[in-house]
Protein: NAD(P) transhydrogenase subunit alpha part 1
Organism: Lysobacter antibioticus
Amino acid sequence: MSGITIGVASETAVGEKRVALTPETCKKLVARGARVRIERGAGRAASFTDEAYVQAGAELADDAAAALGQADVVLCVQSPDPARLSALREGAALVGLLAPQADAARGEVIVAQRLQAFPLERLPRTTRAQAMDVLSSQAGMAGYKAVLIAGQLTPRFFPMLTTAAGTIRPSKVLIVGAGVAGLQAIATAKRLGAQVEGFDVRPETREQIESLGGKFLDLGVSAAGEGGYARQLTDEERAEQQRRLGEHLKNIDVIVCTAAVPGRPAPKIVTAAMIAGMKPGSVLVDLAAETGGNCELTQPGETIDVNGVTIAGPLNLASSGAVHASEMYARNVFNFVSLFVNDGAVTYDWNDELLAKTVWPERPAVAAPAAA
Ligand code: NAD
């Protein structure tokens, strides 16, 4: 009989279709000596059936309380609500995109229940952590879907076509921000046959954009920051970037915005004046809508028309590709959980920086041994 129980309930956030456990990862956790309980129907929105989980060794629970109540480790995509958290076993591990600071009540319950909460968005982005990096895996799906949405909204073809009705010129697509989502967007737009440009304030993205067949749009501004992320731009740098971009956008058919600065609202890059200068029939898909949008006019969750320019601000795009997004997310979670679930037991090695830096609240620094 195994020593620990891993619990998974249905996601409760509106529109969330992903699931943190797939039959594949369920099987692997069972092989690690864990007992897995999953709420009936928890995988349905991501197309994973209860039968598949049972075949992978899971027990089905009739409701969330039965799935989570006795669990030593709880896996989720988005955090359960405070009421659900307060019903967890004291000291249980909680793994997911928890955003504990986003909701004071959530943070309080995590502390009060002494949960070992691992908000995966805090995971250090080191080479060793790549297989656990949910931000990257989910951003890949989001970038892909953003281009498909743009392809759906645009009144144009993406590729060049030579037909009996004459030649169609390829769409000019600009991807703003060339992080994980942006690079996937570039690759996707390229595969659809568009003429693709990308731009980012980190100069190293030039090579990455070019290696995907895109053209680097040089706006004369570099903002390489720490840890591979961008820093905030100065006012002068921003003004120059804006001026050059505004000119350039007059000739662009589709923009996909993916720019972000960690821990801050999305940088506002496309202004109302720039949109006014664009051709009717142009489309902007703002992947940054969740954190306020890269375009001044973006309305999160809405698709609007501004003088013939369509501006879409889709939310939680990764969820719209729930099968593959869940497969990747669940593998990331499995790899992370493998750091502390072994032989049917939970053991934390706090010398492992992936655990120590991800856990929330932050662990106090270990005091240096007293001098003799
Ligand atoms: P992100 O989602 O935080 O940002 C997306 C992009 O927006 C970034 O490329 C950023 O430079 C860009 N950006 C910010 N402000 C901008 C502005 N004003 N104009 C134009 N672009 C702007 O980033 P992300 O995709 O999560 O990751 C960014 C980078 O971090 C990666 O490309 C990679 O280099 C690094 N990374 C490393 C690892 C690892 O080593 N394990 C894993 C993931 C990411």
The pocket of nicotinamide-adenine-dinucleotide is lined by residues 125-127, 129-130, 133, 135-136, 139, 176-182, 200-202, 228-230, 233, 258-262, 267, 269 (CB under 6 Å).
